[in-house]
Design goal:
The chain is an alpha+beta fold and 335 residues long. The chain has one domain: Jelly Rolls (Sandwich), CATH 2.60.120. Helix content is 28%, strand content 24%. The protein contains 8 helices and 14 strands. It has helices at residues 28-41, 54-68, 72-76, 109-119, 123-151, 161-165, 251-256, 312-320, and strands spanning 21-23, 44-48, 85-91, 96-106, 172-178, 197-204, 210-215, 221-225, 234-237, 245-249, 266-271, 277-284, 291-292, 310-311. The strands form 3 sheets. Strands 1-2-10-7-12-5-4-3 form an 8-stranded mixed sheet. Strands 6-11-8-9 form a 4-stranded antiparallel sheet, with no helix packed on it. It starts with 20 loop residues before the first strand and ends in a 15-residue tail after the last helix. The relative contact order is 0.17. The chain binds ligand L4NPZUNZ, 2-oxoglutaric acid and fe (ii) ion. Residues 174, 176, 201, 206, 213, 215, 221, 266, 268, 279, 281 line the site of 2-oxoglutaric acid (AKG). 2-oxoglutaric acid binds at residues 174, 176, 201, 206, 213, 215, 221, 266, 268, 279, 281. This is gibberellin 2beta-dioxygenase. Belongs to the iron/ascorbate-dependent oxidoreductase family. GA2OX subfamily. It catalyses: gibberellin A1 + 2-oxoglutarate + O2 = gibberellin A8 + succinate + CO2.
Length: 335
Amino acid sequence: MVVASPSPTHPEKVQFIELPIIDLSAERSKVINLVIKACEEYGFFEVINHGVSHDIITRMEEQGLGFFAKPLGDKQKAGPATPFGYGCKNIGFNGDVGAVEYLMLGTNSLSIVERSYAISNDPKMFSSAVNGYVEAVTGLACEILELMAEGLRVQDSSVFSKMIKDVDNDSIFRLNHYPPILCNNNNNNKDPSFLANKVGFGEHTDPQILTILKSNDVGGLQVKSQVDDGDHGVWVPVPPHPTAFCVNVGDILQAMTNGRFMSVRHRAMVTNTSKSRMSMAYFGAPPLDTCLTPPLELVTPRKPLLYRPFTWDEYKKASHSLRLGDSRLHLFKAT
Ligand SMILES: C=C1C[C@]23C[C@@]1(O)CC[C@H]2[C@@]12CC[C@H](O)[C@@](C)(C(=O)O1)[C@H]2[C@@H]3C(=O)O
Ligand SMILES: O=C(O)CCC(=O)C(=O)O
Ligand SMILES: [Fe+2]
């Protein structure tokens, strides 16, 4: 299996910029301003003091690590990730590969209970950890989406959050596991210039509204910033943080803010640390038949409608027909 490596002849620019870390317990108007600025500049920020308990996160991490520690044959009992189940190296349906294995789940609590029998030897423990985690991060995503709507001065402050609160929401929960690279050199991996680097999860944007991601203490996530290098962008590593959640603006939030927020391009790299990395990603998505178009306040003669109205079903189908790194929103440009 060939895993893409960043080209040694055309090295990509990596820059250590300080990305925004927002304290959600600070004064509301301050938080709102920081959230808006981060979404406009990067489409990415981290949140601390978010109210999701350490216990909920730890229980989910333990269940995730327990699953990936199983022999391959047992993990495959979860079924193939088409759409929900276990996947290894292959990402999506169009030939993308990465140094990653993953477990994909819907977020409906009953479906999690049902699936947990094929996933865990202690299904009750597994489903209670996942349901507790999903409920907590959905709440966090709603809170953040309401801060965004308020900051954009949209009258209905639940315009974004109501889509993922809907009982028919199409949100996804995904666990990614990146085994360490076992690198043989005579350097005992002490000289950083010997660090091997390969792509765990290639460059892409998330198609949904908002992603809430937590990883363990191993780095690897990088986000693309256009701030200093407008033409191609630079890769900015996101250092692991003991308590923070990462928040990504997804494609349909870019469309629903009429281009004011930017859907962030990101990727996960794997370096030859001795420890594996695990990330837990919640992707908030609306019901399939939701018509996606910005609230009236965000469309003005000076800022005409950028994308035609489309349903999440249409957008999801378009995404699934494309490669991981392909841009998709331009297919929905208003004429
Ligand atoms: C190659 C692909 C994998 C993906 C579906 C797609 O066709 C393009 C978007 C990819 C992505 C990125 C964010 C999430 O991890 C994901 C579950 C999603 O909704 O869109 C994945 C899809 C996937 O792995 O199936
Ligand atoms: O593992 C990560 O940090 C990124 C994963 C990701 O981008 C995804 O699952 O869409
Ligand atoms: Fe992603």
